[in-house]
Structure formats: C-alpha cells, structure tokens
Q: What sequence folds into this?
C-alpha cells in the first residue's frame, strides 16, 4: 500500500463537489452551455412566432423586449439558481436518508488500484477507469470515474504539503488527465 487516508466528509463538502461539478468541471460547463444555447434558441423561436403571427406592432416589440430582458436576467442568475436548487435537492436527500456520499471512509492507494471502504461497501477501482482528476483550490481532490461520480479526497487528510505534492506526483503516473483549479 502506497497511501492510506481516513476520509471524513461533511454535507458542505458534498454541496461543494456538486457546485464544482455543475459550474466548473468540464462536464458541468458543457451541460450549462447546452442549456443556455437551448434556451436562447427557444427564445429566438418564440420571438419569430410572435413576429410572424402578429406582425410588426407595438405589442410584438414590447413582448420581444420583455422576453429578451427576462432571458438576460435568467442567464445572469442561472448559476445562482442552480446552487439554490442543488442545496434544496441535497436537503431532500438528507431527509430521506439517501445521501450520495458516505461521511466516513478509508481510501487506500496501491500501485495498480485504489480501494474505498465505507461502513456499507468496499469498492476496488483500477486507475485506468478514472476519466479525470481535479484538484480544486488545493482543498479537495476529485477522482472522477465517469461524468457524474467521483471519489472525494480532502487535502486535509495529508500530514504536510510535501506529502500532498508527493501524492499528486503519484497520481500523475496513474492518470494523464489531472487539472488544477
């Protein structure tokens, strides 16, 4: 075994992961861009329908301006809306007892794989299956196994900056897609 970490995650860590995933990761940025483009196209289609159906009139111009202003405001506040919505979803999951993470786990890193053990399960993962590794604000390391699931490793688990740097170098030998945010 190369490394062993006792991981303790909070609800805030899970919220932070989901916010990062939605707004800053490659996956989230792509989805966010697609939603914004879809909404822009829908607005354009709606405006064309108004202009064709009602012709050039004061009501059509005013309706178009109001829809465009609403669209711009929505685009500006869309990330805040997503954060708010996400926090509500996570509260709902917590109430139902079905959180998407385990508050306590042990992650062991070997040369050929890593193992996460929680009170409920034990998962062995080969490094080849990792799609991306994100190091976020030097506070958290996300090991993405696919576009929605990741292992979360707080940098607080490391005894020193030197150990963290050594671990990151180890990860670089296992996965070429490491990004620092």
A:
């Amino acid at each position: 075994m190369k490394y062993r970490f006792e991981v303790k995650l909070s609800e805030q860590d899970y919220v932070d992961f989901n916010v990062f995933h939605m707004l800053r990761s490659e996956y989230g940025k792509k989805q966010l861009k697609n939603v914004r483009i879809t909404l822009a196209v829908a607005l354009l289609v709606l405006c064309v329908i108004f202009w064709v159906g009602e012709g050039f009139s004061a009501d059509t111009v005013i309706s178009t301006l109001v829809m465009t202003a609403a669209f711009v405001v929505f685009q500006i506040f869309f990330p805040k809306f997503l954060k708010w919505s996400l926090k509500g979803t996570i509260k709902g999951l917590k109430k139902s007892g079905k959180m998407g993470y385990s508050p306590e786990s042990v992650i062991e890193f070997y040369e050929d794989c890593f193992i996460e053990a929680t009170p409920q399960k034990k998962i062995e993962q080969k490094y080849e299956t990792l799609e991306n590794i994100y190091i976020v604000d030097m506070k958290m390391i996300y090991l993405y196994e696919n576009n929605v699931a990741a292992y979360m490793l707080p940098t607080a688990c490391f005894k020193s900056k030197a150990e963290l740097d050594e671990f990151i170098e180890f990860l670089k030998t296992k996965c070429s897609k490491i990004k620092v945010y």
Observations:
- The mean pLDDT is 90.
- The first strand starts at residue 3 and ends at 8.
